[in-house]
Structure formats: C-alpha cells, structure tokens
Amino acid sequence: RGWIVCADLDTDKWAGQRMAVDPLIELRDVNKYYGNLHVLQDINLTVGRGEVVVVIGPSGSGKSTLCRVINRLETIESGSIVLDGHPLPDEGKELAGLRAEVGMVFQSFNLFAHKTVLANVSLAQTKVRKRKKEEADKRSRELLERVGLADQADKYPAQLSGGQQQRVAIARALAMNPQALLFDEPTSALDPEMINEVLEVMRRLAAEGMTMVVVTHEMGFARSAANRVVFMADGKIIEDRTPEAFFTAPESDRARDFLSKIL
Ligand code: ADP
Ligand code: MG
User: Fold this and answer.
1) What is the pTM of this model?
2) Of the residues 148, 174, 227, 243, which has the fewest C-beta atoms closer than 10 A?
C-alpha cells in the first residue's frame, strides 16, 4: 500500500511513523477549542494514499471533531491540514473543491427523505460536480449496483432498512469520485444484523485501495481492514500503531483500560 518500511526497524514501534510515499491527508499540530474545551490537542496525523486508518477511543475523546476538521466542517485555532498537497483554506472556492475530494459518511445517514435513492446519489454530482443528469444517473446506478442496491433505485429512503440506507450514503459519497472517505461510526445506529452488510462494503472499498479514515467500535473491522489503529483520549492521539501491535500489546493505560471494557 505504498509505504517505505525499513526492514531493520521494529515495525510495530514505528508503524505510525513510517514515511508515507504519497501522503493524502496531513494534520500538523492541529488544535481546536470549543470555548474552554481543548477538544483537539496538537494532533499530528498523516494518512497515506490507499491507507485505512481506524480511529478508536472513548466517547467524547474528539473522534468526530477530528473527522469534521479534516473536511473543514469545523474551524481550527492553530496548525494546518493539507489535502493532497493543498493546504485547506478557511473558505472560498478552493475549499469547496478540496472538500469534494473527501467524502463523509455519518452515523445518521442524512439522506433526503423526499427524494428517491437514485436522486439522493445523483444530487451532488449535478450540483457540485456539474454533471449532466443522465450522466449522473448512470454513475449512480453503477454505484448502487456496487453496494448491492441496484434494485432499490426508485424507492424512497424510508422504504429501506438502516443498512440499506447507509449503503446508499456510501454510494452517494463515492459518486463524487473522492480521493478519500471518512466514516464516523457508520454502523452505530444499525441493528446488529445490518452491521455486516455495511462493513462488507467498506472492506471491499479498502481492498480496492480507497483511502479511508474510519471511526468505529467494530474491532473485528479494525483488525482485518486497518493498516493503522489510532487511539484517542481527551483530545490527544495516544497510540498510532498496527492493529496487531495495538490489540495484542497496547502501550498506554488508557488504551488497555478502553480495550478491557469493549473486548
Ligand atoms: P467523540 O466523537 O470522540 O465522542 P466529539 O468529537 O464528538 O467526541 O466531542 C469531543 C468533545 O467536544 C466532547 O466533550 C463534546 O461534548 C464536545 N463537543 C463536540 N461538539 C461540540 C460543539 N459543537 N460545541 C461544544 N462542544 C462540543
Ligand atoms: Mg463521535
């Protein structure tokens, strides 16, 4: 997946510090506050092209905020965020362009209730990517097929299960041809029997080389699909390691405590 790994280094120890050949998302000394709350503290994180980074940590540790600042849905007080070599500006046309390069999938699917599945997937393509409707609809149908929903195109979101709605949300994010996808607890709102159908789509995207940042409590997914696990607590990145290293021998008390509660 495009990493220079020095064979003579302890790869577990250095997993989070390998030199990315091709960094796609870079956060440098990022700090963010909500009033007095220092919600992101000196965050340094590089996501290489094609990499899958799973972010885990207790509720309130800043995982969602991390996702939101990467797409500049939230301002930051200091530091920088660079997407594909371009520093994220505060506003303007360039921001809109860069934002479209990173698709977001949320816990709540955020589909338009009064639009069909097909229209939901086509909407941003015509509005933001300025595709013609026929072209957008063609692409939407291909993507719905890819997430296993080819036969649901003309339904409305309320007629689908939660797992199907989340797969529509993934198709919608893919429709923009993003360079990376961010997932913020994509399966947390789903009934257990629907979690796997969504994780399966995500696993396939990962295997196809999509760059992904995934906030999730699904440790099976982290173990099987992640290149790195980033553990956050109290607004800080506490560990950034391979899944094997993290799950077999977490270094920090915070991570050990967290794992003992969820595993
Ligand atoms: P996580 O996703 O890890 O649960 P969040 O990033 O949602 O954590 O939140 C981190 C902290 O920031 C929490 O203490 C939360 O209450 C606080 N927070 C999140 N969003 C806001 C907001 N819009 N205004 C004020 N505080 C917020
Ligand atoms: Mg969250």
Assistant:
1) 0.91
2) 148
Point out the ligand nearest to the CA of residue 186.
2
Distance of CA 141 to the CA centre of its chain: 23
On whether the CB atoms of residues 30 and 78 are closer than 8 A, the answer is: yes
User: What gap in Å lies between CA 62 and CA 39, rounded to an integer?
Assistant: 6
Mutational test site, ligand 1, from 34, 104, 230, max ligand atoms within 8 Å of CB: 34
Sign of CA dihedral 201, 203, 206, 211: positive
Q: Which ranges in 25-74 belong to alpha helices (H)?
A: 63-70
Q: Whose CA is nearest to atom 21 of ligand 1?
A: 34
Distance (angstroms) between ligand 1 centre and the Cα of 210 equals 27
**Residue 258 contacts residue 55 (beta carbons within 8 Å):** no
Give the rounded percent of residues in the chain with a pLDDT score beyond 70.
Answer: 92
Q: Is 162 in the pocket of ligand 1 (CB under 6 A)?
A: no
